[in-house]
Amino acid sequence: MDELVVSTMSEGSSYSPSFKRPSDIMRMRRKRARSEAFTSPEESNPPPCIRPFSPGPLFPSNHTRSSGNFKRRNPFANIENRHGPRKKRLIYNDEGKEVEDDATGGQTGKSITIREDLTTKSNDFTLSELLTTLEDASRHENDKQKVSLSEDDSLFEESEEDVKTHLVKSPQAISPCSIAAPLCIEYPSDWSLKTRLLFTSPLPLSWCEHPKAQEEASGLSRHCRAQFSTLSHNLQDPKSCTELRCAFQQSLIYWQHPSLPWVPLFPRINAERRFTGKSAPWAHDLELQQVLMSEWSASLSSLYSLLKARLCPYFYVCSYQFTVLFRAAGLAGSGSINALLSPTTKGLREAMRADGIEFSLPLVEERPASREPQSLGDEETSQQKESECKEDECSTDCLEDDDEDEGSSLSWLKEMGVQEKIKKPEGISIQLNTGGRKVSVDHKPGSVVFVEGPHTFTLVNFLINCKSLVAAAGSQAGLPPTILAPVAFRGAAMHSLKARCVNVKSQVGSAYENISSMEITGPILPTSLHAITTLLRPAQKGNFSAMLYTHTPTAVLNIHGTKQQSASVSADLSAFGLNPASLQQLQQSSSLGKAALTQITMHNYNYSWKK
């Protein structure tokens, strides 16, 4: 019964007389298409400036096209994606020959005319429209050529060089691949100490481990004799290259004093846990402490003599409170011996002034500090200069709040009238006299001290006689600072960095790729880092990356301590015993500032880095 009612309503007079069923509409469209197929294209013209297909170029007003088969432009289409995968181009060279080329590719030769192959658009055009479009395009091209020749007859006298010039100046003639980025064959020098290196490469790094006895002995001998071999840029099999494996063992060597195999002597700052539980027979034996300190003083004096004679490029003194970097003349853009000490405290700086050491605070002030303040006014002036720190650890508002709190904490003494009779606490008096910003510099990178010239010798004597250089209590009590150098010196022991290779799988997209990794641990000096990366360059075909783990207190050693440029001392630097490539890098001034390198990447023999 329901079906009968629905059919009656559909055939009733409630619907419009102009209503047509879908089958009737499709029948009328087929009939119209057959009738328009026999009409000539010249009888009907499309409206002016209408796109023939979406999204395509605008047709001129006199262009012929069937109005019944007109397709409206899609406003959401992208002009850049209008070419399909089967799209081709017809390229005409200078000889007039046609060369087919895909739309995604390109021809390296000279191209004069590029015409789109319209045969792939047969779905949008009829046969008559295709022929008409080709005739109009050829006619338009001939007319354009005639006009250009009639306007300027000198084109026939134009030389081949002028034609090449026009082709080069045109933006279409310049390929994006021809504009190459500048190559960076070296990364900036980094004077900070590294505790760990992690290298990764798509090529295997197994050639770095398990050296033969002969290869290890050859590497040690070459290091002591300062002999360096030149490797080929194209190594076919690094694992079988004896020169490469010997050079790698040579790059891992460093010299250290004192040498205690059961105690890790680097790092020393904030390393109490590393010394806890270790046997320390010198901790309560004053005679043994004096012997250790005497040997340490002799080693430091000998090493400074090598530095002054330009037989040692640099060395580090690592104590439990600070680290000192001594550099020879000609390195890091300085023409004289210099030293950087970080971090420092007010008491250490006052003791250095008392010994006559002139120094500067590069991150606090521009002018060097005076030796010894002659009056209380001079002392306050020097303290005000030091308080102009560029670090933003504390704001002015916080300092004013601190002063108000300190004043309110002693206000009750003033009300009772006994403020002058009671001595203020030592901690509060220091804050009242020096200020909060001055105290905040201590133990921070902003407190780095720069010493230059003959005052470095005074600094060496100061370190030898300084009682606070050695810890009086704790797990490092009685133990002299650690001295690290790239060359041999008196009382030093030869050590080697530890290298370990592991093959891992890394996920790249939806697949996994085999990646070889190498981990190097120990006190890694700047020359060791550069020597290792120099060897990885040919061995890994110019493709590897490295993660660098910096000893944080030494990152500030990359700052510029002086504005003086190095003198012409390149002829005297050959006695340093360094690889010429590493020596050339260390001669340049570091551009890292207060930061240190954290990542180095080489891709296609081109360096990039992060800090």
Q: How many individual β-strands?
A: 16
The main β sheet shows up as: 7 strands, antiparallel
* Global mean pLDDT: 74
Distance between termini? 84 Å
> What share of the residues does DSSP label as strand, in percent?
15-25%
Overall spatial form: elongated
Structural class: alpha+beta
Strand order of the main beta sheet, please?
A: 9-8-7-6-10-5-11
**What ranges have pLDDT less than 50 throughout 5 or more consecutive residues?**
1-13, 48-54, 63-67, 84-90, 100-125, 146-181, 366-408, 426-439, 566-571
Percent helix among the residues? 25-40%
Q: What is the topological layout?
A:
Layout: H1 2-10, H2 22-36, E1 88-92, E2 98-102, E3 113-116, H3 127-151, H4 160-169, E4 194-201, H5 213-225, H6 242-251, E5 253-257, H7 272-275, H8 286-308, E6 314-318, E7 323-327, E8 338-342, H9 346-354, H10 376-386, H11 396-409, H12 411-416, H13 426-434, H14 436-441, E9 449-452, H15 455-465, E10 482-485, E11 493-496, E12 498-508, E13 511-524, H16 526-539, E14 543-550, H17 580-587, E15 599-603, E16 606-610
Antiparallel strand pairs: 1-2, 1-3, 4-13, 4-14, 5-10, 5-11, 6-7, 6-10, 7-8, 8-9, 12-13, 14-15, 15-16
Q: Which properties best describe this structure?
A:
single chain, 611 residues, alpha+beta, seven-stranded antiparallel β-sheet, six-stranded antiparallel β-sheet, 17 helices, 16 strands, 32% helix, 16% strand, disordered N terminus
